[in-house]
Structures
1.
Amino acid sequence: MAKSKPVNGADPADELLRLASELGLGVVPSVLTKLLGDVEREACSYTEFTSRLLRAERDARQERRVARALKRAKLGMVEGLDGYDFSCRPRLEAPVVQELLNCRWVEERRNIICVGRPGTGKTRIMKALGRAACLKGHTVLYVSAHEMIEDLQASSADGTERRAFRRYAKVQVLLVEEFGYQDFDSAATGLLFRLVSARHNQTATLLAANTGFANWKRFFPSEAQAVATVDRLVDRATILRFTGKSFRGPKDIHGDELEGES
């Protein structure tokens, strides 16, 4: 690619940098020198040079968008599915979970419910699916059930309930961890029912609980309240059951076994 001659005494590269700055193309200054060298060595066309320059800008913007989305999602560390030992989870098949990474369940506004004992990998799967949703451009928020209810109750006291409720109701993918760790009182049940009803068939919820559905009624003040909420959560949902031995355990054990220790 031959060098352009200066126009009116201006260096074309300097002019390109000035235009990039005016247009808000923040990546151009950092890649221009390298791209000019590449296309000159490879004798690329002007069209190829322009395509490479614009692709670099697009890719950088996409990376920044994903980084912002992941930060807003509050996912923390995400391990992903690589290395996850599905052989420890009877009848939970890897292809089924991996297929969920395509996020059609988000587009179809369906829920995913993960149930199983602590330490069986529910959180890891949840976060992997949440990250996949971020990469697809969906808005995501990860929160514990207790933290969410506490936030909604606090907002009622300081007059920001509508804004807080909208934050949880409108996000496209809401990941709720530790559902059922603490029982819900009447006030919490009312908030939860409102939220579940607002999201029903409108957005996608990914929820993790440490016990099966038969025991969920004990989280609520009454069985009727449990049924009303749970029916909406499981409607058209995908249920992932995590059975088998926990991944967690001590590194070393020293000394005699204590009485009553299993």
2.
Amino acid sequence: MIQAFGANTHQGIYRNYNEDRVSVIMNIPKPKTRLGKWPSCSFFAIYDGHGGAGCADFLKDKLHTIIITQDSFPSDPGLALTNGCREAESQFLLLAEQQKPNYDRSGSCAIVVLIVDKECFVANVGDSRAVMSAGRGESMMLLSRDHRPNDDRERSRIRKNGGIVYQKPRIRQDQTRPEFGPHRVNPGHLSVSRTFGDIAAKLSKYGGRAGVIVAQPEVSVFTIDPELHDFIVLGCDGIFDKIDSENVLDILWNTIKKNKDRTGSIHRLSAVMTDELMREAAL
């Protein structure tokens, strides 16, 4: 069912380090401890790390295994995603406290696509995004919701649990009126409202507050229709803050039209599409 994929990551022009990680597993094998029939499983994820790469590295190495070893998998993949994210969060926070000489303060957003036979499950924690092209580019389907502090549902949840949403004013030399930075959450001072990790925002002994910044995923599911569904784009906010979802698909379809007869294979075309989107986002 999956014909090809492309993947790329870059730190951008303002940093000399990259805290993002990508996970692609085309065929997840059946665990040795699992009995019964095992479905065809594919796993794709982007982990948008911040405050260090520790959390993103942990998720890249562990999250898929934690998910597929849940008791509810493969009978209920959606529940396995939810419970797996919860367990991964618990494991990483314990690990973060054990780091010496100080605890690991890193965190990560995650956007995950898990395909089980013909069902596609999308799980989102944070402000990365999944977008699908359908009908040969005639329509766009949003498969996830950005988790940001200025979202009404997120703001309500944050305040209900004792958190604060705020913006800092900033005045440039050529301005008489202040501009405002992104909406942020306290505790944590993060511009995203759901993450893995970020121990200082979550545990009270480090100044955090439970329930404000959470690793609770939103999970959606649909049945794949090869005649209707074209491809899915996963990207972090570094892409979608620069290019809106509709224009992302326009760029990719223009790239297909320009290169479909030149690349020689759909695998090469997928790589060209990925590289072109990265180039456009960097402009």
3.
Amino acid sequence: MRRFIPRVSLVLGLAAVGLLGVGSPASASVPGLVYVQGHTAFNSTVYKSITVWCPPGLSVIGAGYELAGAPGSVVLDDFIPNSTSVTVGAGEVVGVGEPSDGTTASWSVSATAVCAVAPAGLQIVVQPSMFAPGGGRQVTATCPFGKSLIGAGTSLSQGFGQISVRALSLTATTVTAVAVDDEDGFSGSWSVTAYAVCADALPGLRLVGASSNFNSFFNKTITAGCPAGQVATGAGWNIGAGEQVLAIDVFIADGTGVTVVGNEDDNGYSNTWNASATAICADA
């Protein structure tokens, strides 16, 4: 049975961290499951980052993030699961056609760490792409033989607000991060990294996907819900468009599934596009 732990919030410098948990009895499939959230300040600082930690004795098995405010003007840089923490960082879109110091609107970054007693075989596989100039590229992190994917993440190196992760595509054993440069291009060197959180298969482990319609609306929201009696451990997304649409929310914190929000950038996007969400679900 799932029970909700009352949220406890505290202020750490410019960030608020809280525990929004789904408690589990000792015999549950995902013992100790809790969702820990942290939030940066809401202002117009060009770059923000937040790290949230699992409670003592628990490990990271998945993650989620939200970029609130200035939709289409902020791009995800870091969505990194570590053994006991999750780091999310984002920066304002800058470059040709944008203000030299980014947007003047206020915005914030939220991170969610999905924490639990470490399942058998837990490990995080990290796979970076080449670090070089050029346009879109992708990289895949693969779980070792006999292990399954239970969580995912990605990060960019030296994108400087002109590279975005268009997709974090999941299979039963792999994470593929797809990144593209913006419409003006980017002359510098950069790389994208995929993170696969792997473990022996959890009971009932499955991927659940959902996609929005293709149209030219500037903002789309889609939810991939876990079946009754299951909880979300990890998240993926795909923005079916070019470089002018950003994934601004990958929400997992209520444990029922994954909600993805895509938004066109400040320059808009004249073609049709869609947003897809993928939830990694397991028995509660």
4.
Amino acid sequence: MVEIVRSGMAYREQQKRQIIRTEIEAVNGHILELGFRFPDLWDHEFLRSLEQTTAERAHEHFAQETFQQAQKLKQQQHIEHIEQLKEWFLRLAAEGDRNKAGLTLEKLLNRLFELFGLRPRQPFRVTGEQIDGSFELDGQTYLVESKWKKNALSEAELLIFRGKIEGKSTFTRGVFIALDDITGEARDAITRGKPPSFFVMNGYDLMMILSGNISLIDFLQKRRRLLAEEGRVCVPFSELK
């Protein structure tokens, strides 16, 4: 029935006799008398469009197409920017000087946060401590620390980061980015005695984000939930649901 109505509308358009809302409403009334109701013919936007002139509908259609094309272009540019960051990251991974690579990594991460609208703040200093940066997610602020060394990190630097978070406010959270992961002893140490206030992201996680396997927002939200519900600081990427 819906297809019949659409064919009738197309025919009337060719005849330059536009179907109006009252005609469709009359058809709906007859169909109801037969005990049927087709939601597409009752759709508010569909009925509203029948009140428009041909020129108005054409203008609206053009505006929608223009918006969709702009969104498509924006999405394509986003994908290209992420791909550029991936290539940048791979070049850094080949860098022999880990200290130099680590400093450049901060710039890469800030650009990544910007692309996902997380309003990053670059490295800043408060009394007695240096903080690599921060970002905002769903109205909450997260401190960021990033380390890129040749071996998995021990507990010392993680405990320092935990102290930085605890020195701010009860609702401050953090993300520790350890490109070469952390040791098993460190995993135990940062969850012993105190509830965890941050989670760890490693190089594989970052590569999965840069490869488009998961968006940064989705990754952070999933990890935040696992931290809140299960207290899990380190989670293999394969276990993200």
